[in-house]
Design a protein that fits this description.
The protein has about 120 residues and is an alpha+beta fold. The chain has 3 helices and 5 strands, in the order ααβαββββ. Strand 3 and strand 4 form a beta hairpin. It comes from Flavobacterium fructosi.
């Protein structure tokens, strides 16, 4: 049985379960499959990444405190996060993957990091 590369269509030589003729074709195929399909998705993912970088930069110890002004000055966008956690004590944390924040009084925020 002749198999062909999923990316370029060349004949594949070697193992029976190979799908690509080279690492270059495998990388090109996977990059094509995994790219953001629209500008809308790309823009949202960029905002999520930026918010994550800001929280990571300000929360080196795993738990810290900051102000709303400091987050905004770095370009943090409070509309973009990945999930919300409501605790049994009634607190609400907003997370970007494993980095999170909770609103405190007087425009202060507590920054936390989930252990994963």
């Amino acid at each position: 049985m002749n198999k062909t590369c999923l990316e370029c269509g060349e004949k594949i030589v070697g193992r029976e379960d190979k799908k690509f003729c080279s690492d270059g074709c495998r990388n090109a195929y996977n990059n094509k499959i995994n790219k953001d399909s629209t500008n809308f998705m790309r823009n949202i993912n960029n905002k999520l990444r930026k918010n994550y970088r800001i929280l990571s930069e300000l929360n080196i110890e795993g738990k810290s405190k900051t102000t709303r002004a400091k987050l905004l000055s770095k370009g943090f966008d409070f509309e973009f996060f990945t999930n919300i956690l409501h605790t049994k004590t009634g607190n609400t944390y907003y997370f970007l993957y494993d980095q999170g924040y909770m609103v405190l009084d007087n425009d202060f925020y507590i920054l936390v990091k989930k252990d994963i």
